[in-house]
Amino acid sequence: MISDNVQSLFRFEPEEDRDFVRDKIQFLYIGGSIGIASSITMTIIEITRNELFRVIPSLLFSIIAPVLLFSLSRKTESYKKILTGFAGLILCQQILGAFISFNEVLMIVWYPVFPLTYFFLLGYQRALLWNAAAIVGIVSGYFCFPFFNHIPPVSFPIFLSSVFAYCVAMLLAWYHYRVIHTYQSRLKREALIDSLTGALVRKAGLGELSRLMAQNDRDQNMELFVALMDIDNFKIINDQDGHQSGDQVLVLVAEAVHRTIRKDDLFVRLGGEEFLLLLPGQSFDTAYLISEDLRRRIEQEVIRPDGSAVTVSIGLTRYRPKETLGSLLHRADNLMYRAKKFGKNRICWQEHGRVDVFLPAPSQITVPEIP
Fold first, then answer.
1. Which domains does the chain have, with CATH numbers?
2. What is the chain's pLDDT, residue by residue, as a tens digit (371 residues)?
3. CA–CA separation, 103 vs 19, rounded Å?
4. How many Å apart are CA 72 and CA 64, to the nearest integer?
């Protein structure tokens, strides 16, 4: 029952709120600082052992990681790209280490930590692929190590045990982050979508309307219409037919809306039997035709138990650049009540300062302008 435009909100990972992003960035500063300190320590150890070529992996991290953390402090909005940069740095460090340091047991002590790092940085879907790439690089490095260094690597049982430990840590982390992702998606859906109608809830819908208004202010060639729709005589339906029948009417009306609106339109339940359609990027004629098609479809398809038709009254208006959200909704609400005043089951619209009421019949009534 959920339309494609609303469903598209859930095709990606749940949007992270500001508090979560702030905490994640703070944790990255802490973890990154520990990683830099560890890399500097490893660099000093390798230098004291006069094995300068083995300094490369740790030196690489200790040089580039501070740059990434500094970039993060300057461009917080680009933090996801910086997280990917950290993941790429760690992957390079892993593979380089496998090719030049696989005779040291010390190198593989960190292996169980790497999978957790990728999942923290990249999320459970991308991290699985990055971990698979890391395993391929580690295995390749182990078997190529003797050819590049002319010495044997660590024993095969130790190597195999470390790879198994890596895989177990990867699978556990994948399962853990996948469960978190599933529940995040479920919670987001429950927070944004009305379970009865499949419409956006009021808070989420008005947030989308604010976003579209700001977009219209930046590009005033993009028209934005809103249609405020109310089910006629809904209290009578509830009183006479029962609340279960009332809920069924809401469901059928919502299904009609989902079948009528376009992919880029949005459907919002403001509360009770009142709904809001957001119709961006189209002319008045198109916005009216969508509204009229919806009005007619509901009248024809939504039938009460006694055989009478369910109807809706709609107030249709255009967003005026720079006006407030309250002003826009107030005007749409006034237009919707005008439609009810003139007999219900019709559309009252405002265009260029004139207010008109479209009747179910071909006739049309012009009424005085409203603010």
1. 4-192 (no CATH), 202-367 (3.30.70.270)
2. 555 555 444 433 344 556 677 777 888 888 888 888 888 887 787 777 666 667 777 788 888 888 888 888 777 767 888 889 989 998 988 888 888 877 777 778 778 888 888 988 888 888 989 999 999 999 998 899 888 888 888 889 988 998 999 999 999 988 888 888 888 778 777 778 888 998 999 988 999 999 999 999 888 778 899 999 999 999 999 888 888 889 999 999 999 999 999 888 999 999 899 999 999 988 888 999 999 999 999 999 999 888 899 999 999 999 998 899 999 999 999 999 999 998 899 999 876 555 555 545 333 433 334 44
3. 44
4. 13
Q: What is the pTM of this model?
A: 0.60
DSSP 130-181: HHHHHHHHHHHHHHHHHHHHSS--S-HHHHHHHHHHHHHHHHHHHHHHHHHH
Q: φ and ψ at 277, to 5 degrees?
A: -105, 130
Residue with tokens 């109807």: 311
User: What strand order describes the sheet that includes 274-280?
Assistant: 266-271, 274-280, 224-231, 312-318, 347-351, 354-358, 364-367
